[in-house]
Amino acid sequence: MKLSTKELILCSIFAAIVAILSQISIPLPFTTVPLTMQILAVAVTGLILGSKLSTISVLIYLLLGCIGIPVFAQFSGGVGILFGPTGGYLLGLPLMVYIIGLAKDKSSSTIIIFLSLIAGLIIVYITGTLMFALITGNTIHQSILYCVAPFVLVDFIKLILAYIVGSTVSKRVSSTLIYNEN
């Protein structure tokens, strides 16, 4: 897969946006999963760049974190984060952004695109909850109570905001961005 200079720059910019918004983080006393703007950033990335470039952007973000650059929530980094209690949430992000980007590439239907946002979030919840349960020894039920239930409403609001931002930006710069060239 050969990327143009423009595509490489877009991927880098959006990887940086995800890294920056991941730092808007509020630790919660009842769980090791912080409240961040990462989901918002990843969803917007998928809606603007489409499946190919958004997936590359998120993989760049994860790679930067893996090599120790503190791009993950609360300025953390290192491969250990991916194998810690919250690593499953990070590992679900490439699939989330791919699904959102694919819906954006293939459809202009608000319903389909919003359903892709919800499906992507559910994937992140599943991968994150399963890994949290595995690492901490909690049951799936306990893990859902700690890691999903407190975030559902806020994450749904983030998806609405992501749709508004992503759709607006896409419409305004669609002639400049090349997100449909997959």
UniProtKB/TrEMBL annotation:
Q: Which GO terms describe its molecular function?
A: biotin transmembrane transporter activity
Q: Show the GO cellular component annotation of the record.
A: plasma membrane
Q: Which domain of life is it from?
A: Bacteria
Q: Which residues cross the membrane?
A: 7-26, 32-49, 56-75, 81-100, 112-137, 143-165
Main location (coarse class): membrane
Matching entries from Pfam families are given as: BioY
Asked whether the keyword Membrane is assigned, the reply is: yes
| Protein name per UniProt | Biotin transporter
